[in-house]
Amino acid sequence: MKRYLLFAAVLTLVSIQLSAQSIPKPSCTTILSDAMFSGRDTVSGRGVADNYHTWEPGDELLVKFMPGGSTILRDRVIMYAKEWEKYGNIKLKFVADTTKQTDIRVRLGKGAGHNSAVGTEAKFRSQNMQTMNFDTLFFADIDYYLLKLKKRGVNPPYNINQLATEMNTDPNHWNDREMRRVVTHEFGHSLGLLHEQSFPGAVKWKKTDSVYNYYKETQGWDRARVDFNVFDVADQFFTNGTTYDPKSIMHYSIEPWQTLDGYSLKSSTELSLGDKSLIAALYPKNTAAATMVVPKVMVSNFTKLNVVSDTIRKGLVITPSFDLKTNPKLGEVYFVARLATEDGKYIKTDALYYNWGGTTATYKKMNLLPNSKVSYNKGKKNLELFMPFEYIPDTYGKKIIVVFAVYLDDVANNQMDKLMYFSTTTALSLPR
Ligand SMILES: [Zn+2]
Question: pLDDT tens digit string along 296-309?
Answer without folding.
Answer: 999 988 999 999 99
